[in-house]
Give the backbone structure.
Amino acid sequence: MWGIVPAAGIGSRIQPLAFSKELLPVGSVREDDVERPCAVSEYLVDRLVLGGATKLVFVISRGKSDIVEYFGGGSHDTSIAYVVQPEPVGLCDALFRALPLVPDHDYVLVGLPDTIWFPADGLSALGDDDLSFLCFPVEQPHLFDAVVSNEAGNVIEVQVKDPDARSRWIWGAFKLRGRVLRDLARLWEERDGRDAYIGTLVNAWLARGGTARAVNIGRSYVDVGTVNGYREAVQLLGAASRLDGPSWRSGSETGAAVVRVANGRGARAKRAVHLLGGSGDT
């Protein structure tokens, strides 16, 4: 199963930084009895691996070679590939850059690398639907993509940054079939690529007969893309043992999946790094 990490954004809400926003240190992790800072994107990597991903693809921009240096080619457990998005023109474009790697029959997990959420193994609760959203309750849904669903969990609409959002549940990650990702890409092209947000594109897909499910099992969700969000993330990690119970090891003992991938960074990587794209063509 593939996990897609869209990491081409410029991070304007938390600049200036001297490095890619996905490498912002938040919390710590222990490697070989040595504690080190943990990059915010490692939390998503952890969650994708816990959700079943064995292959990851980072979608990066030309200027983000520090991400390649940091994560390398992965480890013996999880390999990592890289695709270049020539211009940071939205999430939809970023996701579809990974299509050459994804077969129609496979499933894909998608999350945002500047977020931290619990439960850490939430993606494993998503079934084998064409498209399913892992949803989290928030106090200000108008700042996110609110997912409106019926009692059976069927998605009716995704309200993108709507001041009158009818649901307090937002999507934080999702799972879909490879062929559905390809169908969404075709629809996006038919709509002249005007959908910067996945929510508006999903709404168009639903209107054409597509189906999606909302799995409302999330507990906590923090967007670390702002200074205030960074503070909230630090507080959330401090309370992680209470939120996730004994299965979650907070602080210096962050989840084992993170360690497995992180051990493949830089010169220690044992798999080749693949760079695709760069010309504007998929």
Summary: The helical segments are 40-50, 65-71, 91-96, 178-190, 198-207, 227-238, 240-244, 256-262.
